[in-house]
Amino acid sequence: MLKVERSANGTVPFRLSGRIEKADVEDLRYLLSLEPLNRLLALDMSDVTYLDPTAIAFMAECEANGIVLRNCPIYLREWIDKEKEKNPQRKQ
User: Which of 5, 52, 53, 56 could form a disulfide with 15 if both were Cys (CB 3.0 to 4.6 A apart)?
Assistant: First the structure.
């Protein structure tokens, strides 16, 4: 299950928790698209326990598009970095 909390104070942080899978990526993509283009977005991943391959690719895409990944567990960071190495030109 994915849980998302949103707050705002200049940066728009979304606090994610749980497992993030393909269906969740579609929901996250939609939520992020609702934010104004001039806002700095951040995904707090301190409570994320799992990313499936689609979610790993999505997180790499988010970073490529300027979204900050905060508190990303080391093992997830390694997977995301490997994905970015495979697809360095990835953009939304």
Answer: 5
